[in-house]
Amino acid sequence: MDFILEDYHRNTPDNELIDDLKSVAVKLKKSTVTMLEYNENGKFHSSTLQRRFGSWFRVLELAELQASRSKLNISENELFVNLEKVWTRLGRQPKYVEMKKNLSEYSVGTYEKKFGSWQRALKLFIEYINNDVSSENKSVTKNKLGQNNKNKNFQHKTKREISDRLRFRILMRDGFSCKKCGKSPSKEFGTELHVDHIIPWSKGGETIPENLETKCKQCNLGKGNAFNV
Questions:
Q1: Most confidently modeled range among 51-65, 142-156, 178-192
Q2: Confidence (pTM)
Q3: Fold for domain 137-223?
């Protein structure tokens, strides 16, 4: 499911994410923690914390840890996570002039310095988003989605977690619009979109594109664990 041009942990409390980072710092006996160190020792993933709080520097600040490096040395991953957040908030591809503080953690100039141009940054971002497509389990047949599975002891063929990049690809596929009510950030700024299983994980639903869809926060939270078969 390529395009041309994250457990998702959305219900995890802020303090639990920050406390986990603090515990990693205690474990490593360090006053700061890099993203790589956290990914190797933490319960969650650094991109989950970045998406929740805006940047790794802000995460470290909230955990009362020291900055691990200069803000001038921003990683490509941090810039891509920020771009994903902006793109999702807008419900469309960000424009050059929109990469400002009220919407973006980093300026468009930061992207130009890192990647050479804004267009190249967008191109590499799409490559980054599509980079793990081959890791998706594409061999799960329709009956394994859970529709015909009445055995409570079934074994899943995929993980429950929806990766950040898979989530973003589903949002793009669905046009950044709720599949139930049609709400979209591009039409109503501030609309919060979720990506969730159509057939719930608890009912045997697999984490594959065919069993994932975009819903706004209100429609998704109202769904519960019910589904139509």
A1: 178-192
A2: 0.62
A3: DNA Binding (I), subunit A (1.10.30)
